[in-house]
Amino acid sequence: MSPRLLSLSIAAFVALGACASQQPLRDNAPGTRPASGTDEGELWYAMQRAEEELQRSPMRVRDPALNAYVKQVACKVSAGHCQDMRVYVMNVPQFNASMAPNGMLLVWTGALLRMRDEAELAFVLGHEAGHYRAQHSIRQWRRMKDTSALLSAFSVLAYGFGAPNTAMLGSLAAYATVFKFSRDMEREADHLGFAEVVKNGYDPKAGADLWSRMLREENTLKYLPRSRVFASHPATEERLADVRAAAAAISDPPHELGVAPYRAATRPFLENWLDGELSQRRYQSSLLVIQELLDESPGEDRGVLTFYLAEAHRREDGPGDREKAAALYAQAIAMPGAPAGAWREHGFALAQAGQRAQARDAFQQYLARAPQADDRAFVQRELDKLGGTP
């Protein structure tokens, strides 16, 4: 956007915001959209431009089956607004989901990694749909008019266009921060989403289960600031108490969790999402996340989860971490589903311990299981150093 066009757009946008400040909220019936020339119409236009960029982003997870599954769950808890929402799964390893004013719903893979079942996914998506149904974005936008925050918000939207990948996603996260739904709005979205979760037969305790884990994880990040995205939300303790009370108040509650369909949709991405989790270098929280996944995992996932738990210890590299990692690599290779890398790292641990013959066997197992591995030449050199029978 050129400086001149940007200046004109800001002036027009501010004028529209000022003129529209007293407008009542439109009837947000399913399938409707704001009229052009209104402040809400301009807000939608800005987000549609951002959405066009998002659709081309390499950070999108484009797997048709996963996208169809998440959209299906979102539709269930949308209170009839299915046609108004587009769901985008973004390959970002943090816990987040957000709803734009035009129905663009983003779910980050870090959130999908941390969920256990369809009921927890429905709880999160129902909350985001609640923001859309209650028109929180335009309500917040009108509160910001005539303030410097309005120009800041517009700049976020304007410069978000054309920004590459992570920068663009950062702009969308910044958009969520700029608007900062009030805590009352967040509570209203929780209430609307919770009602849809129960109405569709999901276990009302799902939200409490999810927020209990988020609270434990948050407590491992005591030296880091809270996420900008969640800064405006009620404190996790408060939110956990609210969802527990709401669930307890329901007589004869439904009990559907949807473990099997959730697992079928997400399991193909487990290794990729665990790689992303460790890429954040927040090893204390990753150790908790992976250990809790391991504690609740079916047998076929224990090999891969044990391997990544070992990786978290190895990369943390604190007192005793190398020994813990070595023990976990040894356990992982005896479990179903262990990735080939478990044999490679087991081999390095054995070599470091002076167990040359066993290390050699582990490296050979790795090369046999991953014949096209990028590091094949490197591992072969390690084998050569160990000597012995080729």
Automatic annotation (TrEMBL):
Pfam families: Peptidase_M48 (PF01435). Binds 1 zinc ion per subunit. Residues 62-245 form the Peptidase M48 domain. Keywords: Hydrolase, Metal-binding, Metalloprotease, Protease, Signal, Zinc. SUPFAM superfamilies: TPR-like (SSF48452). It comes from the Bacteria. Residues 1-20 form the signal peptide. Its cofactor is Zn(2+). Belongs to the peptidase M48 family. This is Peptidase M48 domain-containing protein. It comes from Lysobacter helvus.
